[in-house]
Amino acid sequence: MQNKDLSLLKELGLKLTPQRLAIIEYLKGNKNHPSAEEIYNALKDRFPSMSFATVYNTLEVLVEKGLIKELSIDSSKKRFDPFTHPHHHFICKACGKIVDVEAPFEVFVPESLRDFQVEDFKVVFTGVCHECKKE
Amino acid sequence: MQNKDLSLLKELGLKLTPQRLAIIEYLKGNKNHPSAEEIYNALKDRFPSMSFATVYNTLEVLVEKGLIKELSIDSSKKRFDPFTHPHHHFICKACGKIVDVEAPFEVFVPESLRDFQVEDFKVVFTGVCHECKKE
DNA sequence: CTAATTGCAAAAATTTTGCAGGACT
DNA sequence: AGTCCTGCAAAATTTTTGCAATTAG
Predict the structure, then answer these.
(1) A64-101 b/e (C-beta count within 10 Å ≥ 16 → b)
(2) Residue B40 shares a structural domain with residue B102
(3) Is the whole-model pTM more than 0.90?
(4) Is the C-beta of residue A57 closer than 7 Å to nucleic acid chain D?
(5) Which of A11, A81, A125, B123 qualifies as a cystine partner to B88, CB 3.0-4.6 A?
(6) pLDDT tens per residue, range B46-105
(7) Does B116 touch chain A (CB under 8 A)?
(8) Which residue, of A81, A106, A126, is where some domain finishes?
């Protein structure tokens, strides 16, 4: 999610409404992998009339245009990630925090996938984070 | 999900009702990573009175006891996997199929996680499967 | 001005829960 | 017999949808 993305949206004929700009602003640089509800709650003070439809609609557009990614990490709800470059995640089983893992390591693509066209892979680490380890 | 698991369930004071046995039987060796609804639909002919509550309750028990795993691969619904040994997955973006990847490869644990207690990792490959590649 | 977007409300989809009756050990 | 489990129905959660009113470009 970059600043230049704003002009990209415009070019595509999409309108930069205040609500959209607020959602984009909220997501920009956000490392908390928020859900739709978290985004809604964070913005409803500034936009008391905003509806979930707008949040979901905007998220859908941003995902479609590749400006954010939808995560399937939390099986109870969708989460969204403004960092679209290849990266991985660590989930703390104590506090539930999801941490970005930037290392661009390689994974051996196993023999069983030799006939498949493997385009990407994502690694999810689990364990206990530094803060929770102390307790 | 193994045969010996049945006696394990009994030992834990859990009852082997016909519905539970049917769900266990349906899951055993099943490589389709079914959702609760798929399990329900597959069994409702044999158990016309069976309710979702029973399916969800049984799945919860099986997950709790470690006999199956809940997957967070599909962001629209929970899926369940009777294979509890460490393994990974490939998702075909054309047909949506989820394929088990058995290779016990190692992943480099990145420096940024040095203060974390990393206990496990799962890899999700994406791409196009052999069948879909032909088309 | 016009097409895109919002907000509302209803609905769909998935999962959870309370409880009375029924079944397993 | 006693505890666990089932089925039902209602509710909670998350997400989607239709549509009239509004707004950005």
Answers:
(1) eeebbbebbbeeeebbbbbbeeeebbbbbeeeeebbeb
(2) no
(3) yes
(4) yes
(5) B123
(6) 999 999 999 999 999 999 999 999 999 999 999 999 999 999 999 999 999 999 999 777
(7) yes
(8) A81
- CATH code of the domain covering residue B48: 1.10.10.10
The answer, for A131 touching chain B at a CB cutoff of 8 Å, is no
Q: Is the CB of B18 under 7 A from strand C?
A: yes
- Min Cα–Cα distance to chain B from A102, Å: 8
Q: Are residues B42 and B101 in the same domain?
A: no
DSSP string, B83-127: --SS-EEEEETTT--EEEE------PPPGGGTTSEEEEEEEEEEE
Residues B71 and B120 in one domain: no
What are the tokens at B5?
Answer: 């698991």
Contacts of B125 (CB under 8 A, 6+ apart): A109, A113, A116, A118, A120, A121, B88, B89, B90, B91, B101
Are A10 and A34 members of one domain? yes
Summarised one tens digit per residue, pLDDT across range A90-107 is 999 999 999 999 977 778
Write the CATH number for B101.
3.30.1490.190
